[in-house]
What does this fold into?
Amino acid sequence: MDETESLNRAIHEEVALFPYDTAWPALFEKERNRLLGLFSDEFLAIEHIGSTAVYGLSAKPIIDILAGVESMHQADDLLEPLCQAKYATSMEYNASLIERRWLMRWAEGRRTHHLHLMVYGSQEWNRRLAFRNYLRESSTLAQQYEVKKQQWAEEFTLDREAYTAAKGNFIQQTLKSASQPS
It folds into this structure.
């Protein structure tokens, strides 16, 4: 499989969840170290987010990385250098995003990493970390999310955007509930 075919297959990859893999944290650390080695002065912080960052949770086997930058202008300036460092992105998709930029790495026709560039300490940055932390701290919440993700993966196997939207609604409700006084 050539690189173009591999990228095309990764872009159109079906939604499939896999049991938690204890290698996921190490894969994150390896990519984090690679990014810091290549862009030592660009990132204010790099965090492991998403389901692969929550012990025991099934996930699409894609390492989600949150990289903090000083501004969205800086994020935009990093897109080309990151693409030269084995990432790919869609400028059209990124143009639709307000508070982040998105890139992916792939190998052998499947996605391996998603990189989300955001302003460090912004509301969206804090929101993403808060949801990860809630899942890590509450096995009940993690189990509820697990059940829902399995349902959405079955329902939206061929529609990655619908799967992501369904998760977004759950995340939004969780964060709203958590911010309300008991």
